[in-house]
Design goal:
Layout lengths: L1 E5 L14 E5 L7 H17 L2 E8 L2 H5 L12 H11 L3 E6 L2 H4 L3 H8 L5 E7 L12 H6 L6 E5 L3 E2 L2 E2 L2 H10 L2 H8 L3 E8 L4 H4 L5 E5 L9 E9 L2 E10 L13 E6 L10 E11 L7 H21 L2
Helix pairs in contact: 7-8
Length: about 325
């Protein structure tokens, strides 16, 4: 997949060799089942016409510019992961547009001129509620009306699950509740984060359950606190694991402790500090809790381990 970075007004030139393009428009955080329908339709049109398929996404999230937010926005799929998912879907080209205040002030008509017509787009695909241009005044009807015969338009209707729209906002809400099972159904795959194994307090090792302390990639959306059945990819192999997200209240003051992501990897004893890993969330087992002592904690971890083993034995 070819990646092309664009910005307005300084960097809008693309290679003429790209030729005509079938373009999917959207932010696509999560590349969930609804997004997959939009991208898949753009790819189908490209195949029918014998042209290249493309996706246009934006970085950073428009809300950081439009809303004046200062805190870190958490992504279901940070940009690097999003790019990998798009490539895996078979997209030919990914346009990454730098979202700035200047871009946000473009009229819908100017957006179409610069980011559709001048890119050689001959077909546009987007969701029914896609908006663009200043104040989000541009919609799919305007996109079609402004085509001047240079491109055609496909609008993908609302994609639903359980009579509710599949959306990134809905998935974030599920992750905030710890409902990783339902989030996976909407994503079409388990929710995933990437990160680095860093030094922790090594307390797990002292009680017979050494854990990998995973520092998530910046901006990653970590699910709600609790204990989960997960799989972790390390050194080229997938392993089952028990993941605790939280502050370990048995040992720490919850008011001042840093939230951590710790994975007890089943049937694994190697030292992996500094390794890049990937964690997939499958099911939330229970809430994090404070125990009366080490023995009570160890007994619960054994129960959690058995629960995770049973879960994966039933769900292979």
């Amino acid at each position: 997949m070819e990646i092309i970075h664009l910005s307005y007004p300084n960097q809008l030139t693309i290679p003429e060799s790209l030729g005509p393009i079938s373009l999917a428009l959207g932010f696509f955080d999560g590349v969930h089942r609804g997004h997959q329908q939009v991208i898949g339709q753009a790819m189908k049109t490209a195949e029918e016409r014998g042209i290249k398929s493309a996706v246009m996404t934006f970085d950073p999230h428009p809300s950081l510019v439009l809303g004046g937010r200062k805190e870190c926005l958490l992504y279901i799929t940070p940009l690097s992961h999003k790019i990998e998912l798009l490539e895996a879907q078979g997209v030919d080209i990914c346009f990454i547009v730098r979202f700035t205040s200047e871009l946000a002030n473009l009229t819908p008509e100017a957006f179409i001129e610069h980011f559709v017509k001048e890119l050689g787009v001959v077909h546009c695909t987007a969701g029914f509620d896609y908006t663009f241009g200043k104040f989000g005044k541009g919609d799919m009807a305007l996109l079609e009306a402004e085509s001047d015969g240079k491109y055609s338009v496909t609008t993908v209707e609302k994609q639903e699950s359980a009579a509710e729209k599949i959306s990134s906002t809905r998935i974030r809400g599920l992750l905030q509740e710890g409902d990783v099972l339902q989030a996976a159904q909407l994503l079409g795959r388990p929710h995933t984060i990437r990160g680095t194994v860093v030094n922790g307090d090594k307390r797990g090792r002292t009680i017979g359950f050494p854990t990998a302390n995973v520092e998530p990639e910046h901006g990653s959306f970590v699910p709600a606190g609790g204990v989960y059945a997960v799989r972790i990819f390390v050194q080229g192999v997938w392993y089952d694991g028990v993941c605790n997200i939280g502050v370990k209240p048995t040992f720490n003051d919850p008011e001042h402790a840093k939230r951590t992501v710790e994975v007890y990897i089943l049937d694994f004893e190697q030292s992996i500090y500094g390794e890049e890993v990937e964690v997939e969330w499958y099911e939330r087992i229970r809430s994090e809790q404070k125990f009366a002592g080490i023995d009570e904690l160890k007994a619960q971890i054994e129960k959690d381990k058995a629960t995770v083993i049973g879960f994966f034995n039933e769900n292979r």
